[in-house]
Amino acid sequence: CAAMMQGQTSDWKIAGPCTFHRVVLKNASPHHYMKVHLELEDNSNRLSAVELKHFIIAGLKNLHGEVGAALNFDVLKYDEGSLTALLRVHSSGLVKLWSSLTLLGSYQNQSCAFRVLQVSPFLLALTGNSRELQLH
Amino acid sequence: MQDLSRCPRNLLVCERSSFQNEKNRVSAQVEQMHFNYKVSLLLPDCSSAPSHLDETLKSFNSFYLIKKLPIYKLLNENFLRSAIYNGSVYGLSHQTRIDEDNCVSLMPNGILTLSLDKDSFELLGFEGKPSRFNHRRCSRFVVTVNLTDSCMAPGRRNYLRLLEGLKSRLPLQTDFLLSHHPGGGASLHPLLSCCDWSEHQPEVKFRSLTNVSFPVPESCDPHSFLQWLGAVESGVSGENSSNSFLSSLICPEPKTQTNCALSACVSGMLLPQDIQRLIGQLRSADGTHSKHVGVGLVCDSPVSQESPGAGPVLGGADSSRFRGQPRVLGRERAWISSRRRELLQPADVPRPHLPPSLGCRRTRCLPTVMPLTHQNQEN
Question: pLDDT at position A70, please?
């Protein structure tokens, strides 16, 4: 299946610009992207991007052990003001990362929770959310 | 134990051709996208929007928000005559979530779709079918009514039954977004005149970018290309080293560097006709670099959820050549779910309104029990 997908994508690259070329990629997305928001009991508390990543790695280690702690994921973007982050993870690690975020319940002895706002195999899909359309 | 390395199914369909190619489906796909939330543009080597493009972006049709619209008013005879029979009406319930609330949509071909939870569906008492979105647990139902059909003409039995259901048994009320092409507000007057409404213009935003790396589309696989486009749109830096602690995202190679680029986006309730006009403008514009257009769909639309259509991303190297990559914005699950449906057998989907299938009525053939004889015992 992987070889077939490789073949399809290489066909895609060499196809001439004027011919019609269609490629269907099924379950081929290498990464998944998550938009998450951290809710803290004390709103005045702020984390830097590095602290946030450390915190998530600690959660992965608690739930999945050393193998979980070695999971590769990226903090693509982080807004300290709103405590909202864009994460990228290999598709095979999505369930482990998501479950760790769900079970992370305290940060420095204060209650906290991760809200998963959007999940998609396409980063472009996280650039807009129709539920945020506010009309006054 | 479930395999932890499995992830939700996903599907990406990529098409590349000239606009002149007879197999090109860009126009047909855009026409099918009835409820669009966002259109984003990426123009390389551009520090400010060209005047003709700026004009097009700002001339997108306005839309109306009706507060607490009783849904039965969509069946108003005058409204049917002035708007639905004479043009394209786009209507969608606002601030309702497809997985929690009752959602309503009105499509330009006159089809009214109600996505209802089980209790509301039973109260309404009108024919519907189980939602395809969640096929494992039959908790939602979809009622689809063609208002232009002769059996739904005012005064006919079906019309009166639906009107009665929405008036007395299930008095649905929701904030409602409405737009009309080509008539606009005048055609919607019979409905607007009896409700609390406000008119809204789609919001246009521009963002100037500096030192942007562009991958060469012909030598880049679709997923990497979409990732790069998403990174630029969401302001994620692509200049990372492979050993960076926070992120290792980089622009795909080979790449070209431009000093400036312009990102523009329009958001609101956008009509497909406006998007077609914008694509036409981009095709006629001069330029040597790729231009990219992305369309985001409303994620809580009952129509998007039930049909396998998807919003495209378009990119092109010159005025007559674009690359189309259908993509999904905010509703991947619907796309995946509708594809998964094809793998199911008809008997897997509950249909409470239909008599049980022949397969269910078939009597089971039990194996015949042979009397145990002395010869069998020996064998």
Answer: 93
Give the list of residues 6+ apart from residue A79 with CB closer than 8 angstroms, or none. Answer: A85
Per-domain residue ranges of chain B: 15-60+202-337, 63-200
Number of structural domains in chain A:
1
**Strand, coil or helix: A108:** coil
Report chain B's mean pLDDT, rounded to a whole number: 75
Question: Domain with A84 in it: what CATH number?
Answer: 3.30.70.3250
> What does the pLDDT read at residue B134?
62
What is the rounded distance in angstroms from the CA atom of residue B130 to the CA atom of residue B48?
A: 49
Q: Please report the pLDDT score of residue B2 as a whole number.
A: 66
Residues of B in contact with A126 (CB under 8 A): 230, 234
Q: How far is B360 from chain A (nearest CA, A)?
A: 34
Mean pLDDT of the A80-88 span: 94
Q: Is residue A10 assigned to a domain?
A: no
DSSP alpha helices (H): ranges in chain A?
2-14, 49-69, 94-103
- Distance set, CA A99 to CA A29, A105, B142, B147 (Å): 20, 12, 32, 46
Which residues constitute the domain of residue A80?
30-123
Q: Closest-CA residue in chain B for A78?
A: B236
* pLDDT reported for residue A19: 77
ipTM of this complex:
0.87
In this prediction, residue B288 carries a pLDDT of 54
Would you call A123 and B230 a contact, using CB atoms and an 8 Å cutoff? Answer: yes
Cβ pair A124:B294 closer than 8 A: yes
Query: Is-contact B60 B271, C-beta < 8 A?
Result: yes
For residue A93, pLDDT over 90 is answered with: yes
Residue of B200, B226, B234 with shortest CB distance to A77: B234
Q: What is the pLDDT of residues B288-308, one digit of tens each?
A: 556 777 777 777 777 754 444
For residue A101, pLDDT over 90 is answered with yes
Average pLDDT for B103-117: 91
Kindly state the percentage of chain B with pLDDT values over 70: 75
Residues contacting residue B24 through CB under 8 Å, at least 6 positions apart: A20, B15, B17, B18, B324
Rounded Cα distance between B106 and B145, Å, is 10
- DSSP states of B80-148 as a string? IIIIITTSEEEEEESS--TTTS-EEEE-TTSEEEEEEEHHHHHHHT---EE-SS-SSS--EEEEEEETT
Q: Judged by CB atoms within 8 Å, which residues 40-79 of A form the interface with B?
A: 49-50, 53, 74-77
Rounded to a whole number of angstroms, the distance from the CA of B225 to the nearest CA of chain A is 10
Q: Is residue A46 part of a domain?
A: yes
The tokens describing A53, both together, are 């990543």
Q: B10 contacts in A (CB within 8 Å)?
A: 26-29, 121
